[in-house]
Amino acid sequence: MQIHPADGILDFGCGTGRNISLMNKYLFEEGRVLGLDIGSEMLEQAQRRFANHPRVAIEKRRIEEPLPYQDEFNKVFISFVLHGLIQEDRLKVIANAYRALKPGGEFLILDYNEFDLKRSPWAVRIAFNLECPLATDFIGRDLQAILREQGFDGFRVKTYYLGYVRLLAARKAA
């Protein structure tokens, strides 16, 4: 993620805060993380985990609904959430990320990469049968093109698990 000590990071779908724990290690006093989620159980765990961390806040908010953040964060992070939304809501999440980012800030998406499920090895096809049906739609879309249409550029990509998972970073134009 190339976290800098003074970064402000917004975590969409933070869950129990596991990723926030990793990010928080790179931040100094000026840095902060705001985690958003809607699951009551997840929020309770995250709020307990960060009760004594002044740089971390956790809020109950839907990420596909309008958010109050404007040009406020250096990074917006989302991990394995986007593929579980319908396309209309994915676009709303992308728009929220764009608005929340400062010029030059990055939207970092850790999720499935694009691939042809029918041409994938049998093990991948079987594993994907356990995934939500929206994930099949997600892997067939050109996410970089969608992000570009929403005003993002300066892409960086790191792939994992034989290319089936990627961390895609997209920069908000400065």
Account of the protein in words:
The longest helix is centred in the middle third of the chain and has 14 residues, at about 85-100. The chain starts with 7 loop residues before the first strand and ends with a strand. Strand 2 (about 30-35), helix 2 (about 40-50) and strand 3 (about 55-60) form a beta-alpha-beta unit. A 7-stranded mixed β-sheet has the order 3-2-1-4-5-7-6, sandwiched between helices. It is of the alpha/beta class. The protein has a single domain (about 10-115, about 140-170), classed as Vaccinia Virus protein VP39 (Rossmann fold). The protein is built from 6 helices and 7 strands. About 30% of the residues lie in helices and about 30% in strands.
* CATH C-level category: Alpha Beta
Q: Based on helices, strands and strand pairing, what is the structural class? A: alpha/beta
Give the overall pLDDT as a whole number.
95
Lateral strand order in the biggest sheet: 3-2-1-4-5-7-6
Annotation field: number of helices: 6
Q: Spans with pLDDT under 50 lasting ≥5 residues?
A: none
- Largest sheet data: 7 strands, mixed
State the helical fraction: 25-40%
Q: Count of DSSP E strands?
A: 7
Principal-axis shape equals globular
Rg calculated over all Cα atoms: 16 Å
Percentage of residues in strands:
25-35%
Order of helices and strands: EHEHEEHEHHHEE
Give the N-to-C terminal Cα separation: 18 Å
CATH superfamily: Vaccinia Virus protein VP39
CATH architecture classification: 3-Layer(aba) Sandwich
What is the domain tally? 1
Determine the CATH topology: Rossmann fold
